[in-house]
Structure formats: structure tokens, C-alpha cells
Amino acid sequence: MAVDGSLEEMLSAATAAVSGCSSLDELARLQNRHLGKGSQVAEARAELRSVAAEERPAQGALIERTRAAIEEVFRSAREHLEEADRQRRLASDAADLTEILEAAVPSLGRAHLVQRTRDELEDVFVAMGYEVVEGPEVETDWYNFEALNMPPAHPARGMWDTFYLKLGEPNSIMLRTHTSPTQVRVLQRGELPVYAVMPGRCYRRDTPDARHLPVFHQIEGLVVDEGISFADLAGTIEEFTGAYFGEGIHSRLRPSYFPFTEPSAEFEVNCTICRGAGCRTCSHTGWVELGGCGMVHPAVLEAVDVDPERFTGFAFGFGIDRCAQMRHEIADMRVLVENDYRFMRQL
Ligand code: DAH
């Protein structure tokens, strides 16, 4: 009986020990202690030899049952711990699909940075009383070059590397290289005065790099009225610069050449990154070129039957993508067209 009692105690001691065990390593140590060589079960077996021969089979069977019961306790505990372990590993190895889940949630989306920049630029000029006009992206040689005072073979055409379409006379239909042809279309309406901005997409055979894209956007400005002077142009550019880039950013004009304006200038604004102090983006000059401008050339007015003796005007054109780059400090313009979600989601 004494042995029976202690066998039961061995089983309950093992059961109690196992119930507090939380790792497979610890379980293996406990199993060794409760079933291994030095265990009480092993001792009970060894003591069988000193048990009377007639009691030995019954006693032996009792010890075996106890041992099997203890073993079952350990087997089932191991199974539980292994399963828990597997679940833990599954949880920690699980791929983080949060991004995909987020993308699957319908969102309202938003306008691309270039579109937003275009809208903001339009707003600045609409506030100054300008109308917004769009022209076609596919143009004839006459609108893109000739009416802008660049007859065929004029050397200034070399300023624009052009994509031609296989339509009509060879080299007569092209993807517009600038928004300036829309000036001609606006003047052709024959309604004066004109105060208009003309945003849109343009194309040039340029290799993409940090500051150039072969498909890009410009906004063109045109004012034609009686008594318009260069001072009006300079004042308008300065007004725009402050309105769009904010206080403390100013503009300056430097002599330049365009066939469709005389005099011509390129306009620069204080670098928005260093605010004029000088940095890599502005090549340490404190200024960044934004576009070209000038007084509309009399030949352009004559091409569309506007009397240059009575009307004068100014025009300007600059890159919308360049404006976005300046204002948002985008190091490489190519991100604007790559559609990388990591960039897009910041917009
Ligand atoms: N069309 C010119 C270009 O793409 C920019 C430009 C210069 C536009 C002077 C103008 C202007 O309206 O007056 O390089």
C-alpha cells in the first residue's frame, strides 16, 4: 500500500510540475527528473527486486501503469507546448501586409502634384484678372514656329528638339515644343485686349535627367493691350513670384533672346531652398531660372493681324514641373512620372 500511495504521489507530483511548465526545454528537464535514471519511478522499479516473488508481477504492473501515466502527462504537455510554439512562430513570421490592406481600402485619391501646381498657378493669375485658355498638344509648324517669328530653317528653331508626326508634309505636324503657339491662337480670336494664361503639356527630344523630362508642362502668359510696357511685365512677374512662392522670394530679369519677343529676358527667382544665400540647387548664385519672357515681337502681332502701332504686349512662359520641384524641394524631377507609391502618398 505504501508503494501504491507513493506511486500516486509520483503521478500527481509530475502532473503538478508539468502544469507550471512553459517551455519545451524545461519540460525535457522535468521529464528526466520524473522518469529518468535517478527518478522515483526508476527507484521503485529497482526496488522490485526486493519485493516478495509472488507480489512482484502485480507490483511491477502497477509501477508500469504509473510510469505510462506519467509519460502520457509529459507527451500531452509536449504536444501543447509544441503547438503554442508553432503558433508563436507563425505569428512572428507572418508577412506584414498592412500596406496592401491599406491600398485595398477605397480612398478618394487626390490630384497629382503637377496638376495641383498647375491649379495653384492658374489661381494666382485668375486672381489678377487673367483668363485660362488651352491649346492643342499637336501643332502645325506654322503655330509652333513660323507665326512666332521663326520661318523655316531659322537658326533659333535649334533651341527646341522636336518630335514630328508622320502626317501631311514631312516635318509639318509636331508635338508642340512649348505653350507659346497658344498665344497665336488666342490672338487669332481677334478680341483685344488679351490677359490670358495658357497651361499645358509640351514635348521635346530631351533625355530625362534630374531637371528635364521629355514630356513636361508649361504655363504661358500673354497680355496685349494699349500702352503695355516692360515695366508692366517686370511688375507682373514680381507680383506672381510673391503670390506663388511667398514673402521674401523675389524675381529678377536678365537679358536673353527669343525670336518672338523683343526685348527678351529670362526671369529668375530667389532659390527657395537656400532663400538666396546660395546652395547646390542654385549653383551658389541664390537664383534659379524659371522661364523666359519679353515684349511681344511686332512680327508676331502682324502675323495675326494685330496693329503693332496701336497695341503692345508682353509674354512669358515657364515650367510647371520646375515650379513644383522648386516649391517642394524635389531633387530629381523623374519622380514626378515614375508613379512610385512611396512618393505619391506623400503628396
Ligand atoms: N517658349 C519659350 C520656351 O519654351 C519660353 C518663353 C520665352 C515663352 C519667352 C514666352 C516668352 O512667352 O515671351 O523656351
Structure report:
The model has no long low-confidence stretch (mean pLDDT 92). With 347 residues, this protein is α+β, with helices and mostly antiparallel strands. The strands form two sheets. A seven-stranded mixed β-sheet has the order 1-4-5-9-8-7-6, with helices on both faces. The chain has a two-stranded antiparallel ribbon with strand order 2-3. It folds into two domains: 92 residues; 232 residues, Bira Bifunctional Protein, Domain 2 (BirA Bifunctional Protein, domain 2, 2-Layer Sandwich). Helix 6 packs across helix 11. The two termini are 83 Å apart. It has 13 helices and nine strands. Bound molecules: 3,4-dihydroxyphenylalanine. The site of 3,4-dihydroxyphenylalanine (DAH) has 12 residues, from strand 8 and strand 9.
Question: Which key features would you list for this structure?
Answer:
single chain, 347 residues, alpha+beta, BirA Bifunctional Protein, domain 2, seven-stranded mixed sheet, two-stranded antiparallel ribbon, 13 helices, 9 strands, rod-shaped, binds 3,4-dihydroxyphenylalanine
